[in-house]
Structure prediction request, 290 residues.
Amino acid sequence: MTDNELNALINLLEDPDEVVFVAVKDQILSMGSDVIPALENVWENTFNNILQGRIEDIIHTIQMEQVKAELLLWVETGGNDLLAGTLLISRYQYPDLDTEQVRKQIELIKRDVWLEINPNLTAYEKVKVINHILFDVYNFSGNTSNYHAPQNSFINNVLESKRGNPLLLSIVYSVIAQGLNIPIYGVNLPEHFILAYRDEYAIQQEGEDEAILFYINPFSRGAVFSRREIDTFLKQLKLEPNRIFYESCPNIDIVSRQVRNLVHSYEKLGYPNKVSDLKELLAILTGHIR
Prediction:
């Protein structure tokens, strides 16, 4: 199809005949993301509000389907790359996000930590180094003044503003640590997200509790604490202790929690379309694909 033919097809989207519109829309959708530049070109050169609205809807549908397909692949292949998973959620909101640039930002922070780390440091000393780089050098902190804002749940925004919620600060922290072979992983604590420093030398038998040296709270500048503090926290919430509140969780669970946080944020802001989209992504992550 030539550019002129494609532009003519796109312009048919303004046809008042619903049958024609649906047929044209389906044909354009079948072309996938390759058609987006042509759609954007027509959008920029028309003053027809109906046509612009329909083009916006089609572009969003194409981009949403692409994110869903890539998220499903990430889940089916084990969700081993936490950064890849959280970047996919960012791409829902920012389709043109330069993910390589985000990875470079992470690598820069990781390099600065690496320069201060040596094999003779204890686990606690390694955490002190990470804390110094993240919270003193880069000035990351918890966004306490606008806690539920959606931007706290997108890693590109957090890296830019240096502000985030407990989950996203924990994701940044753990991605950097694991990239340096430091065994720090997320813990799905209710009402708060924290990190655990695994005992890398412990031999865990089947059915035994995971060997954890201590816990880390990135939202409180990397404060280190013990299991006892989790016990106290659960009592305050009137919850019974459960292994999942003390042990590390899979990356898929972490990204699922990220999406749930966004659902909550957009519900509070009154964006039902975004809530619906995000619930579709959550269905993929939880194995209830629609």
User: Anything to note?
Assistant: The radius of gyration is 22 Å.
